[in-house]
Amino acid sequence: MRNILNPLFLFIPFILSAQSPATEDLLQYVHPIIGTQRMGHTYPGATSPFGMVQLSPDTDTIPYEQNGKYNPDVYKYCAGYQYDDKTIVGFSHTHFSGTGHSDLGDFLIMPTTGELKMNPGVASQPRSGFRSAFSHSTEVAEADYYKVKLEDYNILAELTTTTRVGFHQYTFPASDQSHIILDLISGIYNYEDKNVWTYVRVVNDTLVTGYRETSGWGRTRTLYFAMTFSKPFEQYGSRNYSKKEVYRGFWGKFDQDHNFPEIAGRQLRMHFDFHTKEGDQIKVKFALSAVSTEGALLNLRTEAPGWDFEQVKRQGQAAWNTELSKVQIQAGKEQKDNFYTSLYHAYINPTVYMDVDGSYRGLDQVNHKADGFVNYTTFSLWDTHRALHPLFNILQPHRNVDMIRSMLAHYSQSPEHMLPIWAFASNETWCMSGYHSVAVIADAIVKGNAPFDANAALDACITTSNRRSFEDIGVYIDKGYIPSEASDVSVSSTLEYAYDDWAIAQAAKKLGRMDVYATYSKRAENYKNVFDPSIGYMRPRLSDGSFRPAFDVLSTDGQGFIEGNAWNYTLYVPHDPTGLIQLMGGKKHFVQYLDSLFTMTLPDKFFAETEDITRDGIIGGYVHGNEPSHHVAYLYNWTDQPWKTQERVRMILGNQYHARPDGLGGNDDTGQMSAWYIFTALGFYPVAPGSDEYSLGSPAIDGAVLQLENGKTFTIEAKDQSEKNVYVKKVTLNGQILTRRYITHDEILNGGKLVFYMSAKH
Predict the structure, then answer these.
(1) Which of 525, 649, 667, 693 is deepest in the core (most CB within 10 A)?
(2) Phi, psi of 508 (to 5 degrees)
(3) Which residues pair with 728 in a beta bridge?
């Protein structure tokens, strides 16, 4: 990375005075509807920045299981919403944004009129249940605001949120039979036995509390609620849809279906009934807590004490505008739409996971108090360690530190003594591979954003990396690779462990622990042990040291890789591109390999084997829709043809990101796809988090001002940038020509001006 560009890069000692945030309303460029179908799996509803509540419409009730087998149709509903659907079943309070697996969809609310229906029905039979038809013509989706007309009931539904409270506003027609359904059965990736137990207490004619415990992707997940109405309900009732139970105690003495204040069971729905005049508004505030109903009530009364819906909406949107204004770009409308929608997606997860008093449920299922930090959850670390957390180290450093403190709290509560792998809602899911929390921690330490006990954090990384019983770490340590007999993803896990080990080494070096640095630097070279020089690809290796004979470099099924093939994963050595290039035969051959990846024709059968990869996310054989390839276009910077990085990243931006409902070429994966866009549009990217370097590319905007937490500003200018002028003639930083292909973290945080001089020729 130290080679000079083809007269490429310069930098200018131009110190900017602190600039005030832009007055432009950036919310006009945020489109939550982008990426809500196909592989996007985002949701269009209301949420605060990093909010615990994500209040959004669910458009169907597809079960996870069908005839005793996995139902592949459920995958489309990872976020609960599909743009092509014609009905809405209700509005639930928790969702994932762009994940490849799912859970949540808690506490669904649906307003109705007319005959009381307590089943959602099916989409193929209109009016078969309480679901309602809707049209995109009446649908409005903004940051922290959603509106839609429920056509079957002539009800206008509006949603907004605080961090922990969902605020509903329903405008009813005149009706003697107006209802609000509280569906405590509904969930995302639901199946018959997922609800372990549900409890509801009707406190009075405007207040209801309770909890639900589920067992799904989050194996032991309990969520409490407090629900209050602006208008007293006239009567209420419940239905218990549980299978016939062997023992139900003596509760049969009561009529529990009508106006009974204490309901419990596994499969419950509630209804609350009203008389409404034309234009009557019934507002519902619904607060969440992972700790207790008292915590939910505290959250409700603290964050949303009144009934002014518009005020809560204004406050929520003002919070979004403040966060978005940390980056002010100069670009055309389409670029702004893509950029600020990406920034919006990047600021949804991880999510706050504690009450307003700091109480939270820990991994040990014990209630704790966050001491001096905000506790977060939703750590999709296989995805987000690559660019999302590095983005936070620039734009949200304080939040990123709190996220790391949350990871360390997870570690202290873990009976396995491990940092999180893929964790949410007091649960470790063990989803995906690697131990990438160490990369997030190392990145913060190396970049100087570590106002925590960095040595204790490093110890946690070391302990995690030596948990021999997890995902073949033991044999990896002993042999320097994972044998094919031990794991179906032996090659990709070996590569990911090697990168994580390198990250540990960098943190150790920063902290002066050179013994650890030496040990993990050696482990970081293990990627070489799964490279087969006879074919030029990473390849599964047997326990006896030989390479597995049966092998297909294009297939994603059973070849030793998780969600990818050898063509892409051979390039997954982000921490040592120079060593990889040598391994693959030098720069000339390496460039040919990269060129072939982007230009080959990949038959459909090679990505039909995994639901996480579709044609939409593929360019040639390059899979942008799945994260292991996100650094690949930048690898030309380590060759004699860095201009191809500039050409490729601009091509990917235009090909994979569009301002429309199917505008993403893959799952957003809790912000990683969006973080790639943000970095790349600005002109640089963190190829190897754990390093303080950002590899330079080709900015797709005319300019940007980054408002940093330290009060300084970092300005980017792209002179003569256009769709044709994608090549970089030179770069200056603070007026001085840059003779390298990267900038450093300190150079950004110190403030200043980065100028790209663009051209149509390389």
Answers:
(1) 667
(2) -65, -40
(3) 758
**Helix or strand holding residue 580 (H, E):** helix 577-583
Give domain limits for the chain.
Answer: 26-307, 326-759
Residue 523 tokens read as 């482990």
Q: What digits encode the pLDDT tens for the residues 328-345?
A: 999 999 999 999 999 999
SS3 content of the chain, % helix, strand, coil (to 5): 30, 25, 45
User: Residue 335 corresponds to which amino acid?
Assistant: Q
Percentage of residues of the chain with pLDDT beyond 90: 90
Between the CA atoms of 430, 191, 214 and 112, what dihedral angle is there, to the nearest 10 degrees?
A: 130
Q: CA separation (Å) from 393 to 233, 286, 338, 388, 749?
A: 48, 33, 22, 9, 10
If you average pLDDT over every residue of the chain, what do you get? 94
Rounded to the nearest angstrom, the gap between the alpha carbon of residue 478 and the centroid of all alpha carbons in its chain is 34
Residue 536 neighbours by CB distance under 10 Å: 16
Crossing angle of helices 454-465 and 397-413, rounded to 10°: 50
Of 307, 106, 118, whose CA–CA distance to 189 is shortest?
106
CA dihedral sign of residues 339, 58, 350, 26: positive
Which H or E run includes 403?
helix 397-413
Are 696 and 637 within 8 A, CB to CB?
yes
Instruction: Tell me the torsion sign for CA atoms 304, 309, 310, 313.
Output: positive
432: left (phi over 0), alpha (psi -120 to 50) or beta: left
Question: Which CATH homologous superfamily contains domain 326-759?
Answer: GH92 mannosidase domain (3.30.2080.10)
CA 421 remoteness from chain centre = 14
What would the DSSP string read from start to end of 44-67? -SEE-TT-S-EEEEE----BSEET
- Give buried/exposed letters for 555-594 (b at 16+ CB in 10 A, else e): bbeebbbbbbbbbbbbbbbbbbbeebbebbeebeebbebb
∠46-51-54 over CA atoms, to 5°? 40
DSSP secondary structure string for all residues of 495-554: HHHHHHHHHHHHHHHHTT-HHHHHHHHHHGGGGGGGEETTTTEE--B-TTSPBPSS--SS
Tell me: the pLDDT tens digits for 524-540? 999 999 999 999 999 99
DSSP classification of residue 306: S
Contact 683, 699 (CB under 8 A): yes
Q: Which residues does 522 contact at the CB level (< 8 Å), separation at least 6?
A: none
Starting from the edge strand earliest in sequence, which strands make up the sheet with 693-696, in order? 684-685, 693-696, 742-744
Entry pTM: 0.95
Domain boundaries 26-307, corresponding CATH code: 2.70.98.10
CA distances from 187 to 217, 510, 588 (A): 12, 45, 53
User: With bands split at pLDDT 50, 70 and 90, how would you rate the model's confidence at 22?
Assistant: very low
Q: Model confidence over 669-710: pLDDT tens digits?
A: 999 999 999 999 999 999 999 999 999 999 999 999 999 999
Token reading at 369: 């108090």
**Whole-angstrom Cα distance, residue 745 to residue 726?**
24
